[in-house]
Write a structure and sequence with these properties.
CATH class of the largest domain: Mainly Alpha
Distance between the termini: 49 Å
Helix content: 25-40%
Radius of gyration: 30 Å
CATH superfamily of the largest domain: Topoisomerase I, domain 2
Strand order of the largest sheet: 8-9-15-14-11-16
Shape: globular
CATH topology of the largest domain: Topoisomerase I, domain 2
Length: 704
């Protein structure tokens, strides 16, 4: 038998697959796309049915020559790019440049990189799916038309280098609108009343909350009303009116989709969407695992489906039975319903080898790889386990015309929660209520009113933004991370801790695009376009027609904007830092490697300085100033301002406090289990001291 050529996107994927196929197969990587629209011109013939002009990507010429030579000497070529629109398009371009006949069944795909999945794919090749290619091509052309037609207006009227994207623009508007709502928000005062009560026979107390007056929900608007009610309550008696006991089945969550994985990783691991997808790609393509070689650890990570294959379900059931016992299995395998209008092209994200629990392969994984794999593995196993059963109790307590409530719960059978903890805020804050009887009189330790003010809407985090994009049908699983990354890279938005808020530049761009290109920033219009692209993928619509329907009205808006948009000057932010060469106040400039200080006297004075965050802590080595810096990978660390004379460095913020045990400097740390604490930097000591919860968490660098 002659040799066969298999082409994938990445060397990591090639290494994993090559191990499964043996010496008759040559596995090569295309390193992503090999052809694309030219960067220097539009590359789309608007007058000729929007036909694209593809060129070989710079630097890919030698690679393509190599692939052509291999394809000629091999009996068969298999295109094994990722199982999505982008992967299908890469295969189509490879088919064209390698001159493979369209009728040939050269396309193979697999949802997980395992030996069985790869070999089954080889046995079942198909033709390249032109409908999938058309959907990708339509998206690419739409994005090119928006970017190359609107961006030059922003360059001329605002600042060179700006961009307007089809999906990025509506996302930016959502962020700007949220910030506007926050700024316009007027807080309103309200009060709540709680009482700490206990049984006469025991000193064990619990909190009850005022909920009604004469059977209707109560709203307390001011201090006077609050004090009047408290006086009445103190003169009355707290009587148990009704006790309701029962059990509640708490359902497990479905396995991860791209969106829910990004949300959970952001909330629980403090990972950005970009970081989550990068690590998930590594886990999918293959990791060197001791005793197993290079294997793909998870299924394809770009999916909107919660569907699980029968084989995976059966394997999970056997694992749960053997590992946890029969009682942890549901009566029948669980099925989860996906949201409407999903593509459902692939399974949910799950481990490829269920028996490889995170603890078994921890030594083979980097720290962040382990964290994400653990999250995916636990969520999937939990999704196939029996429900958690909780004992619940609700108590109604009356005091004259006023009604109070208290509720409590405890876990009767942990079920899936043995693997994956999942409690709502109410469940976590539930009271432990003692045994009570109806009509029993309770003693009151205190009755207190608390003043509150209504809060403005919360700013988006990456997690909540991804959730909102998904709920509104904007973008698709593969686009959430690039959308957010682009907005941050363009300086349209910035992150303060986890919150995302618009910059001055972001607001300016949004105002222009919203005024002159309102269809681009319309949520319903953008969602409808996503649905039309799905229809193209399914062969229900013609891609040229979809592009034309979008671009024709846009073209008119571009003509108007060219004439009407006024020139806008963005002033540099002036600091109180003096230029040490000419004495002028330095300004903040934005460069490709981040912000920096520059003298406004340029070009006469070309002085620049890096922006450093100075801490009020002396250097533990030389007594100089400790400053926050960033590594080449963008991770925050702390060093001495006297570098290179002083080589002090720490990944955690140093504290002024010395360790009471060994005298070494202590560093600030924080975790969900320990809260905020100080830890001795001496690895042999590791003395820990708890600090107040209002101490700010300083280890935000883990998100980079």
């Amino acid at each position: 038998m002659g040799q066969k050529l298999v082409i994938v996107e990445s060397p990591a994927k090639a290494k994993t697959i090559g191990k499964y196929l043996g010496s008759n197969y040559i596995v090569e990587a295309s390193m992503g796309h090999v052809r694309d629209l030219p960067k220097s011109t539009l590359g789309v013939d608007v007058d000729d049915n929007y036909n694209p002009r593809y060129i070989t990507i710079r630097g890919k010429g030698n690679l393509l020559d190599k692939l052509r030579k291999l394809a000629k000497k091999c009996d068969k070529v298999y295109l094994a790019t990722d199982p999505d629109r982008e992967g299908e398009a890469i295969s189509w371009h490879l088919e064209k440049v390698l001159k493979i006949e369209e009728a040939q069944k050269c396309r193979i795909e697999f949802n997980e990189i395992t030996k069985n999945a790869v070999k089954n794919a080889i046995k079942n090749p198909r033709q390249v799916n032109t409908s999938l290619v058309d959907a990708q091509q339509a998206r690419r052309i739409l994005d090119r038309l928006v970017g190359y037609k609107i961006s030059p207006i922003l360059w001329r009227k605002v600042k060179w280098g700006l961009s307007a994207g089809r999906v990025q623009s509506v996302t930016l508007k959502m962020i700007c609108d949220k910030e506007k709502a926050i700024n316009e928000f007027t807080p309103e005062e309200y009060w709540t009343i709680e009482s700490e009560v206990y049984k006469k026979s025991t000193s064990k107390s619990f909190i009850i909350k005022l909920s009604s007056h004469n059977g209707k929900k109560i709203n307390i608007a001011n201090k006077a009303e609050n004090e009047k009610i408290i006086n009445e309550l103190r003169n009355g008696k707290f009587e148990v009116a009704k006790i309701k006991k029962g059990t509640k089945n708490k359902n497990s969550l479905p396995p991860f989709t791209t969106s829910t994985l990004q949300q959970d990783a952001n909330k629980k691991l403090n990972f950005s969407t970009k970081k989550t997808m990068s690590i998930a790609q590594q886990l999918y393509e293959g990791i060197e695992v001791k005793g197993h070689g290079t294997i793909g650890l998870i299924t394809y990570m770009r999916t909107d489906s919660v569907r699980v294959s029968d084989e995976a379900q059966k394997t999970a059931s056997n694992f749960i039975m053997n590992e946890y016992g029969k009682e942890y299995l549901p009566e029948k395998p669980k099925e989860y319903k996906g949201k409407k209008n999903i593509q459902d092209a692939h399974e949910a994200i799950r481990p490829s080898y269920i028996e490889l629990s995170p603890d078994k392969i921890k030594d083979s994984l980097k720290d962040d790889q382990f964290k994400l794999y653990n999250l995916i593995w636990c969520r999937f196993i939990a999704s196939q386990m029996a429900n958690c059963i909780m004992d619940i109790i609700t108590v109604d307590i009356k005091n004259g015309k006023y009604g109070f409530k208290a509720s409590g719960s405890k876990i009767k059978f942990e079920g899936f929660m043995k693997v994956y903890k999942y409690l709502t805020e109410d469940e976590e804050n539930n009271e432990k209520i003692p045994e009570l009887i109806e009509n029993e009189i309770l003693e009151s330790k205190s009755v207190e009113g608390k003043q509150h003010f209504t809060q403005p809407p919360a700013r988006f985090t990456e997690a909540s933004l991804v959730k909102t994009l998904e709920e509104n049908g904007i973008g698709r699983p593969s686009t959430y991370s690039p959308i957010i990354s682009t907005l941050i890279d363009r300086k349209y938005v910035k992150k303060e801790k986890k919150a995302i808020l618009p910059t001055e530049l972001g607001n300016i761009v949004n105002n222009i695009v919203s005024e002159y290109f309102n269809q681009i920033v319309d949520v319903e219009f953008t969602a409808d376009m996503e649905n039309k692209l799905d229809n193209v993928e399914e062969g229900k619509e013609n891609w040229n027609k979809v592009v034309d329907e979008y671009f024709k009205p846009l073209e008119k808006s571009i003509e108007i904007a060219e004439k009407e948009v006024a020139k806008i000057t963005i002033e540099d932010e002036v600091t109180d830092i003096k230029c040490d060469k000419c004495g002028k106040n330095m300004v903040i400039k934005h460069g490709r490697f981040g912000d920096f200080l520059a003298c406004p006297g340029y070009p006469e004075c070309k002085n620049t300085k890096p922006i450093v965050e100075e801490l009020k802590v002396p250097c533990p080595k030389c007594g100089g100033k400790v400053v926050a810096r960033k590594s080449k990978k963008g991770r925050k660390f702390f060093g001495c301002s006297n570098y290179p004379e002083c080589d002090f460095i720490s990944w955690f913020e140093p504290s002024e406090k010395k360790c009471p045990k060994c005298g070494t400097f202590m560093v600030k740390k924080s975790s969900k289990t320990k809260g905020n604490y100080l830890e001795c930097s001496n690895s042999e000591c590791k003395f820990i001291e708890k600090v107040s919860d209002n101490v700010e968490k300083n280890n935000d660098n883990n998100d980079n």
